[in-house]
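Components:
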Amino acid sequence: MNNNNPVPADYDGKSIWKFLVSEFKPKGKFLTPFNVISIPIMILGVVLIIFRFWKGIGSITNLTQEIPWGLWIGFDVVTGVAFAGGAYVITFMVYILNMHKYHSIVRITVLNGFLAYVFYAGALLLDLGRPWHVINPVIGNSFGTSSVLFLVAWHFLLYMIAQLIEFSPVIAEWLGARRARKILSGMTVAAVIFGITLSTLHQSGLGALYLMAKDKIHPLWYSEFIPIMFFVSSIFAGLSMVIFEGSISHKVFFSQISEKNHKAQRGIIHGLAKICAGAMFAYFFLQMLVFIHGQRWELLNTGMGYWFLLEMLGFVMLPMMLFVYSYRRNNLLLIRVAAILTMLGVILNRLNVTVIGFRWDMAIRYVPSWMEVVVTLTVIFTEIWIFRWVINRMPVLRDAPSWTNDQQ
Amino acid sequence: MGINRRGFFKLLGVAGATLAIGNETNASPQGKSDVEFYGILYDASRCKGCRGCEYDCEEAHNLPEPLPSNKIAAIRKTNETCNTVVNTYNTTKGKVFVKRQCMHCNEPACVAACLTKAMHKTKMGPVTWDGNKCMGCRYCMVSCPWDMPKFEYHSANPKIQKCDMCFSRLKTGDSPACAFNCPNEALLYGKRRDLIKEAHRRIFEKPDLYFDHVYGEHEAGGTGWLYVSPVPFEQLGMNTSLQQSSYPALTKGFLYSVPSVFVLVPALLLGIQQATKKDSLNNDKEDE
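Structure:
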C-alpha cells in the first residue's frame, strides 16, 4: 500500500536525523493551483503581521474603541474553534461509546482539531496588544480566576496538550518508535476523557465571553443561554466540518486510503448526517424556546429580524431537513450540500454574535479591512500547508504500519 | 467488574487534577461589608462647563493638553489621549454640562473580565490598570457597559487608558485632581456612603432644581462616581437602560458550573466507556 514511504531503518541517532531531514523536504508537485493562490497571500500576510507588530494593531485593522474585537476574534478564534469541535465528538463516539465504525476517521479529525487550535488560538496572539504578557495567566503571578477568558485560555492550552497526546501514537508510528507508541497509546482514553470535558466547557465558554456585553449585542442573539447554544452548535459545526473535510481528503489524498476505508466512508458520512440532524433539531428547538420565552416577536419585523430569520430558517432549518432527507434517500451529494450550508450557518451565527450583532446600533459599523482578511487567510492557508505536510508523511489517512498490529 | 483498580486510579487522577483547576476559576468577591469605597459626586446643576477638570486631569496623568473650547465638538467621548471630557447638552432646562470618565463600579465588569488581574479594584475604590500584567486582549473593553477602557491602537507597546481617580494622589491623602481644583464645587470627593446621603439631601432640599434620581447609586450594581442633575439623565446622553445589578454576576452562573462539570463529566464518561467496552464482561458473547 504505502511502502514507497521512507521508514527509519534503525534507532541509532544518525539515521533518524537523516530520515527527519529527508522528511522536511517538500514532496509532490510544487505548482499546484492551491500553492499558486496561497503562497502570494501568505507572503503578503507575513508582511502585514510584521507591520502590525511594528506600528500597532490599529495600523492594519479597523477596530475602534467601541468595537475592540473584530474578525480575528469573531472568525479566527470563535468560529475556528467551533469547527474544531469535530475532534471531541468523534473521540467521544469512538473511545467512549466504542463505536468502531468511525475509527478510521479519528486520526484525521484529531489532527484537524489539533491544528485548528494551534493556529486559531495562535491567531489570538496577533490580536493581543501586549503578547509578551500572554504567559501571565499561566505562570500564576496573576491568576484572574473570575474571568471567563482565563478559563478559555487555560482550556485552549490544556486541550492542545490532550489532543497532542491523542495524536502522538501517529507521530511514534511515523518515527518507528515502538516503545513510545505503546506508552502513548495507553494514555489515549485518559486524554480523550479529559479533552471532552475541556471541550464542553470552552466551547460554551467562548459564548460565555459575551455574557457581560449584554447591552452591546442585538437582543435576538443575546440571551443567558449563549454558552449552551455555542456548545450544542459546536457538535454539528464540528461534524459538518468532518464531512466536508473528509470529502475533500478522499479526493486529494485518494492514493493513501485503503480500499476498506474508502468503502467505509459512505457509512460514516451517513451516520454523521444523522447525528447532525439530531443536534440541529435540538439547537433549533432551543433557539425557538429562547425566542418565544424572551417575547421577541416585535423584533422580527426589522432588518436584523429578517437577518435572524435567514440564519434560523435558511441555515439551520433547511440544512437540518436536507440532512434528514438525504439520509433517508441515501444521497451522498445532498449530505455534502447540507454540510456546507450548516457550516455557512455556523459562520453566520458566530459572526452575528461577535461582529454583526455587536454594536449593531452604532452609526459607524465595523467592517474588517482587507488587511485583516489577508491575515486571516494567511492563518488558514498555513494551517492547510501543515495539515498536508503531516498527512503526506504520517499514517493519518493510510493504515498504520504493520508492526503496530503486534501491539494491540 | 466495571471499574478495575487501574481504571479507578485513572478516574481519581483525572477528577483530582481537574478539581484543583476547576476550583480556582471559582473565585468569589471578598467580604464587601468591611470595605469603604471612596467616590466622587458630580452635580450637573453646579458645573459651569469651564473644562478646568480636563486640564487638571491631563496635568496629573501626563497626557496631551486638551484643545480649547472653540475647537471641540459639544459632545465628545474619552479616548486614549484623554481620560475625561465635559460635554454640553441642550436640555429642557437649557444648557447642561456633564463630565464623563470611568465610573469606578463597585463590582467592575472590566476587573471580572481581566484574566491577568491587570484591572484591579483597589480597596479605596478606584479601578486601576497595571501595565506589567496586561496582555492587551481588550476583553475589559468588550465587557465595560460604559466603554471606558481605551486602547492605544497605534502603538507597538499599547496601554489601556482610563480615569484612575488619581489613585497615586489618593494614596498620599490628596483628593483627585479634578475634584480638588473644581472652582464651582461641582465635584465632591468622599466616602461613597456619605456621597449618596449628600446626593439625596440635595435632591430633598431642592426638589425643583433636581431630577429625582442619583445616577450610579444602583446602575451596574453601584458606581464610585455618582451623578445628580437638573434633567432626566437620558437628556445628558447617559445610558439609563443599564441593568441595576452587577455585570460580573452575568457570568457567575457559568463559572460556578465549571467545578461540577469538571467532576461529573469525566466520571460519567469513564462510566460509559467501561460500560460499552466489549471485553469488560466475561459473558459478553452470551449476551449477544
